[in-house]
Amino acid sequence: MEIYLPIAELSINVFVLLGLGAAAGLLAGMFGVGGGFLATPLLIFVGIPPAVAVASQANQVIANSISSLQVQFRRGNVDLRMGLILLLGGMFGSTAGVWLFTFLKRIGQIDFVIAVLYVVMLSTIGVLMLVESARTWLRRRRNPEAPRGKLHTHYLVHRLPLKLRFYKSKLYISALLPIGLGFIIGVLSAILGVGGGFVLVPAMIYLLGMPTGVVIGTSNFQILFVAANVTFLQAATNGTVDVVLALLLILGGVVGAPVGARLAAKLPGVALRGLMSALILLVAAELLTELLRTPSSPFSLAARQVLP
Amino acid sequence: MMRWKGLWLAAAAFATLAGTASAQGPRVEPPPGTLGPPPLGGPVDPTMPPSVPSEDSTPELIVDLSRPRVSITSAFQGESILLFGMFDPPGEVVVVVAGPAAQETVLRKQRVMGLWLNTGRQAFDDVPAYYAIAASQPLQRLLARGAGGEILSLEDRLATIKPVGERGGAELAQFRHGLVEVKRSEGLYPAAVGQVAVQAGRLFRVDLPFPSRLPEGVYEVRTYLLREGRIVAAVSRPLPVGKVGFSAQLAGWASHDGPLYGLGAILMALIVGWLGGTIMRRL
Fold first, then answer.
1. Nearest CA-CA distance, residue A231 and chain B, Å
2. Do B122 and B197 sit in the same domain of this protein?
3. What is the ipTM of this complex?
């Protein structure tokens, strides 16, 4: 069954979009991060203009995070103070990101920048996670009773000024750190159409040293508002948010997320992280091939300019 | 008979309202035989006034479309519109469909340190959004006999588009070629000349194919009657292409009131996400 997307201006099979949404939802449920990093490249592969894919995906992320946040709030897994500080950076970052997106689109380099950013980011995170989960797995196997070690290690970043106490996260760190992190996630969110959970979650665990329990709820809190900001700005400046596309992705995600959550409950954390890193690396490899492979046609058209 | 008359009147009114058919002169029907020969040779200019005033119908050529417009709805997957009519024999029929002209920018990818990225761009003015041609006889044979001044094959029509900027020579030719290649892959410049089927020597019909990825605007459908290589009658019909219904409302809302549309999109996501989450957890 084909449906015409009014903003993307093309017709596409409904079930392809529902399936993509479900796959993204499945990931969201399993790993606690949105599947945007997977859904956005796939939308572009099926022919949705990158600008529309990114903006509509941001719209989808809102639904994803509110539905996850419902549960996290009830369980008290949200560090509001940390969330608000991250959000402060996130708002600036996403606004700057939408501006940068508009600029790159105008000079015709947005597709390239999207692809390169994805490859660099996904391969870095994929390798880091793979190494980490392999290490944990080996250590556990050698000595199941091994102590977990220090809560977190102290780096240079912990000596920055403007220190704040985060009771829920059991942290005493500089506010500049979460603000900077939020800013970077905001920029990524605007340019790549992702919530940024797949960067934010590891960064909160390994960089900020937050306890795993509050990481997902807090990241979802920041992602919800950043995605809303991106959706609003993309709609207002570029007019590229396709609500029909977003709605189909959301509906798919609604079905996929609980299935993913149930799967996640049955699998051990190490296996889950290993699986996720493999998936991330796979998407990165596919994008890299796209960049390296000789295109079927070197030519493409920019947006039509209807003359007055 | 009354129904036909009503139809023509409606079509004429529509054409006047749309105001796009070029050279919509007074409805004076050209007496046959008084027409000068079509211009031969010389530079081809698409803005040149047609040698025959365009009419909704002439005594020699009556044309109608199976639909007055192409409506892009939520279920739109491209559409085929039937053009049919009648002419006074003898003669041959040529149909040219041209979409609204706009500036198009062609981007070219090149390998830079192993990666493919856009390195060159070339804008062209006056590029038709869509261009298709159909004829009752092989086009070369018809055009060779002198009607080429006004009826342009796709190649001739594209030879008239003006590049923006200084680029020239072989590189410009590459970009021109690239433009056609992309448009063709989108189904907007059908490569094959369509076949106008003639029955009983005077009835004709042809299917005009429109792909799903169709730019909006008012298209022009021109039908020519040729005798011995000369245009003796021409009929022009505007064909509006546009979104209708839900699609049109959404697209209009998005382009006219972006901020409000953005808020609506956010609200939609919040509601569906919240409800969806609640319902799925109950199951």
1. 6
2. yes
3. 0.83
Domain with B204, as residue range(s), is 2-242
Q: E strands, A182-245, where?
A: none
How far does A277 lie from chain B, in Å, by closest CA? Answer: 25
Q: Which residues of chain B does A235 touch, with a Cβ-Cβ cutoff of 8 Å?
A: 254, 258-259, 261-262, 265
| Chain B closest-CA separation from residue A167 CA (Å) | 29
- Same domain for B223 and B142, yes or no, is yes
Q: How far apart are CA A133 and CA A152, in angstroms?
A: 17
Clarify whether residues B214 and B276 are in a common domain. no
Query: What is residue B150's three-state secondary structure?
Result: coil
Domain interval for residue A53: 2-291
Tell me, yes or no, whether B81 and B192 share the same domain. Answer: yes
Tell me the per-residue pLDDT of B171-218, one tens digit each, with 9 for 90 and over. 888 888 888 888 888 888 887 778 888 888 889 999 998 888 888 889
Write out the two tokens for B136: 């009752």
CA distance A69 to A77: 9
- The set of residues, in sequence order, having a beta carbon less than 8 Å from that of A71 and lying 6+ positions away, is B277, B281
In a domain, A54, yes or no: yes
Interchain proximity A254–B77, CB inside 8 Å: no
Among the residue ranges A149-153, A261-265, B61-65, B209-213, the one predicted with the least confidence is A149-153
Residues 6+ apart with CB under 8 A from B22: B49, B50, B54, B220, B236
Same domain, residue pair B188 and B280: no
For position B180, which CATH number holds?
A: 2.60.40.1930
Taking the whole predicted model, whether its pTM rises above 0.90 is answered as no
Query: A244–B250: do the CB atoms touch at under 8 Å?
Result: yes
Question: Are the beta carbons of A294 and B116 separated by less than 8 Å?
Answer: yes
Would you say residue A283 lies in a domain? yes
The partner residue sitting opposite B104, judged by closest CB among A70, A235, A301, is: A301
- Smallest Cβ distance to B212: which of A7, A11, A236? A11
Interface test with A, best of B107, B126, B171 (most A CBs within 10 A): B107
**Do B254 and B183 share a structural domain?**
no
